[in-house]
From TrEMBL:
Signal peptide: 1-28
Family assignment from sequence similarity: Belongs to the bacterial solute-binding protein 3 family.
Record-linked PANTHER family: AMINO-ACID-BINDING PROTEIN YXEM-RELATED (PTHR35936:SF19), MEMBRANE-BOUND LYTIC MUREIN TRANSGLYCOSYLASE F (PTHR35936)
Keywords: Signal
Native source species: Pseudomonas umsongensis
Limits of the Solute-binding protein family 3/N-terminal domain: 39-260
Record-given protein name: Amino acid ABC transporter substrate-binding protein
Pfam (any one): SBP_bac_3
Domain Ionotropic glutamate receptor C-terminal, chain residue ranges per copy: 39-259
Length: 262
């Protein structure tokens, strides 16, 4: 009986030790893999001017791309930017196609159940954009009309939840602006910053409608990571805080946005 108890104790201790080692490995896995590879793979849509877009040299540039590069530099690794449609971007992260998402992603309770977030790394509010001569004069007029949204983002969910809008989804802002100008949609719903920058560049005649705070208050955008990676999360949060403190963040923001959007 004593021998059996000793055997059981040894087995139990071995299992516990193995579990602890496994847990530690899981928690350290992503950061260790990044450090071993000397590379962090970061996903974004590549269709979200001025945050991520492909320039004339076929390189992904923009605010999100520059933030990614600066974070990687502080982590002592190189960055590889991967472009992917926004509606499947979290699924790609969970499938380990990349290590993080820096794609102007709104931090929501639903997303927090699937991933962890570093940040917020900037803040923005909801904006409704209509043609200058539109019959939509106020937020209250936004009903029984066709609106454009970015497929899978927080505004897509918001528009569909209203129940009185016909929703058409797009991969990026430029397509929406073209369809707005052509009359294929009556309005578009998006974060305020990219809309204001894009309209300024194109000279398109539009009106901006700001919804009441209850329908579009300022929201935080986060850097998404797979869950159970506290070391990677802490490392990236520290790097972000250093960028905010030493002026690097402000320099990037001024370059791409024209003001500090932290």
């Amino acid at each position: 009986m004593l021998i059996k108890k000793l055997k059981d104790l040894i087995v139990a201790s071995t299992v516990l030790a193995g579990a602890l080692v496994f847990t530690s490995a899981v928690h350290a896995d992503d950061l260790k893999s990044i450090q071993d590879a000397q590379e962090i793979r970061i996903a974004m849509s590549g269709q979200y001017v001025p945050f991520s877009f492909v320039n004339e040299n076929n390189k992904v540039v923009g605010f999100d791309a520059s933030i990614s590069e600066a974070l990687a530099e502080r982590m002592g690794v190189k960055v590889t930017i991967i472009t992917t449609p926004f509606d499947g971007i979290i699924a790609g992260l969970l499938a380990k196609k990349y290590d993080a998402i820096i794609a102007s992603m709104t931090i929501t309770p639903e997303r927090q159940r699937a991933v962890d977030f570093v940040g917020p790394y900037y803040h923005a509010g909801r904006t409704i954009v209509v043609k200058d001569n539109s019959s939509i004069k106020s937020f209250d007029d936004l009903k029984d009309v066709t609106v454009g949204v970015t497929l899978g983002d927080a505004h897509d969910k918001w528009a569909r939840a209203r129940g009185n809008l016909k929703v058409r989804s797009y991969k990026g802002l430029q397509e929406m602006l073209v369809d707005l100008d052509a009359g294929r949609i009556d309005a578009l719903v998006m974060d305020s910053v990219p809309v204001l920058v894009a309209v300024k560049e194109t000279g398109q005649k539009v009106r901006i409608i700001t919804p009441p705070e209850s329908d579009g208050g300022i929201e935080g955008m986060g850097i998404a990571l797979r869950k159970n990676n506290p070391e990677l999360k802490a490392t990236m949060q520290k790097a972000l805080e250093e960028m905010l403190a030493d002026g690097t963040y402000e320099k990037i923001s001024m370059k791409w946005i024209g003001n500090d959007i932290r």
